[in-house]
Amino acid sequence: MSFKSLLTDPSNRLSSWKGENCCSWKGIKCSSSGRVVVVNLRNPHPDEVMINVNKEVVSNSNNTSDFSLKGTVYPLLFTLDHIQYLDLSFNNFVFTKLPVEISNLTKLTYLNLSNAMFQDSISTQFSNLTSLRSLDPSCANLVPDLSSVSVSLTLQPKLDVGSVLSFISNGYLSSPNLRWLEGLRHLRYLVMTGVDLSKALESFHWATPVSSLSNLILLRLSNCNISGRIPIGQLLNFTNLSVLDTSSNILTSTIPDILSNLTTLSALDFSVNNLDGHIPYLPQLEQLYVSSNPAMTINLVSMFSASGSKLKFLDVSFSHVGGTLPPSLSNSTSLTFFQADGCSIQGSIPSSVTKLKKLRILVLNDNNITGQLPVSMSSLISLQYLSLIQNGLRGYIPTSICQILSLDYLNVQWNELTGSVPSCILQLPKLSYLSVQNNNLNGNMPLSLIQKSKLGSEAQSRGLEKIEKDVSGLHVLGCSSRPGPILDHDKLGIRARFMVPGCLQNRIGSRLVYGLGCKSCLALDTEFDQLMAMKASAKCQVSYNILPCFKVLCSNLLVTPYVMIVVMREWFLLMKDHCMLVLDEAIRSIPTQIGEISAIWSISLFGNKIHGPVLESFCQSTNVLQVLDLSNNSLYGTIPRSLGNCKSLIYLNLGQNKLTGSVPKKLELITSLCYLDLNGDQFEGSFPVVLEKFQEMKILKLVGNRFEGRITKFIGDLHHLRILVLASNSFNESIPERVMKLENLQFISLSRNKLSGPIPENLEGLKKMTKTQNQTTILGYYYSLKFTGALLEIVTKGQTRFLVSVYSYNTGFDVSSNALTGKIPKKIGLLNGILLQFSTAEKRVS
Question: Which intervals hold domain Leucine-rich repeat-containing N-terminal plant-type (predicted)?
């Protein structure tokens, strides 16, 4: 019960934790003698997210509630020394350290702490757990990333996809040395996705202690910042290894031929590295993933030459293939998944591909494939997913495709197909997605059948004359020749998961969408007059019944500020047990009722025209607030001392207001604070001493205030700092030497101050700036349906630029416009910076 008392449980997952008999509690199992042996508190419904085209992390799931437990882990949990199974994954332990008491659970055989918002360095916490069979302390996971998608609207339109997956961090863990693994001799499954192992390369090669785990069946070290050659000498010790995943690292060299000696190996993932050369003959493999190794050459002829191949899954995307799809592809009769995006494949699809009776997924996007779709494709009796985006396919869509009764997804956009879309396609019983946009199709497309088949369709085809207006059953309606906003809400009466109408640049005219009704529209893009039939005032009303988590967008004036205020007051009456409030461009003052929402964990009033002071009621004693964003308003006065009551606060942004005074000492109670932004206000006084208490601080922005005096030395004790921006103040004296020992610091700006003296020499302590980073993690904090990122303002030659999404590989060093003297340090060449500025008005630095 003490464990429960330290947690916030918004979905009441622990409601059964009552009384003395803990063996009856949900998530707890006991042995016949009454000892607790299983504690399974894994979040059953982790929120699925994606990065949209605007580089925003948004929810992509249907969850309307937050199922994660939030808070800290009570140490008494680890006095239950008979526990054999412990799973705390996908919860939110607010960047606390790994519990050292976990080493008491010596009978553990299964431990899963993945994606639970821990922040620590792994050293000896697990070394006593010698009975472990499975260990997973991962702190990152892959999500769909559409931020690099772009469309060039030329005479020959082109879709540039870029990276479609990126890692999002859910905590931060590192390990400077993996020797703690050597005692875990029974370990069979080891997953450390996202754990930073860059230092493990320096002290003791990561592969040496890992290779002592001779019983390993599965090893996943994806996105661990591992570099160098593939450690084949150590890998050969794995006589039982079945799955090896070292994807998304900085591995170089070729894939060694001798890997064929690992006869138990069935799945190999080397994708997203810097490998080169050819793929050796590895007949034992059932799964091979080598995508995004642009220097690697893939010889499909030799890969498919041998009959009887075991290969079931193959992904060679964004590596160099060239040539054509060989007829020998049919030899891989076990193949169920084949993806080769962006491989410069030429020629036509060979008819022999139709012999792959087990093929379920075929993805050949962004190649130079020409010719027609084979009529014999009807022989692919297991095919569920077919994507041939952006090739040079010509001719008709064969009616024989209607015989593939298993087909669920068909995407042939950005080709040169002609004729009409066979009406029989819409009668396929399992089809849920059809995209034929940007072809040369013509004729009618009877979408009235869609309601029966629950089809989602993108039908912009530069020639379709008519789309019938009964579209209430659509999953996806994409009539656009550019990507629209990424949505997952019931908009326009349509379940839109990818696109809503943006511009309709085709020949079908405004009749296309005449009569579309809007049942619960949150936002509607009416930028182009082709949507003239869908006037927002007549057809679209904002739904006020979208609790518990909501966002109202008013860019098209669907809601006036006055209406918004009225509706807000009603919402507050309903919000007491719910989670998040985000309002954009709608309100003039902060209603005092906001303090009554005791269960709210995130408040964002960014970018309104709010006047007045920061309310004392934001942080009442019962609050669980973690995110507070009041930036870009017209707030005045001082920071209220009551903000110190928000002890769960992780993100605080008061920037771009008119706040004055100093930073109150009571804020030191917020020891979990990781992000503090006070930029562009009117704060004054010396460097805030309260900052010394924020040992978890990662991003600190004090730019554009009236702070003065020296930058205190304790700034060098904030070891987790990633971004430090103190520009445009009146700080003087010298740059503290200890700042240059912040190993995680990747961006520092001290420009436009009154600093004097030399630039410190010892720059090698800035490890994040001096070493190449291959991780693509976006900096910021992700909570359920909201992602709070790090925005950087960069001033070069008098021009201001904004870096909207800051990745872990972005670095910068700016000390320009000060009174510095002496020479530029010799070791400045070690820095890998996006920005490197040393100029001063006095030209005293040589």
Answer: 1-31
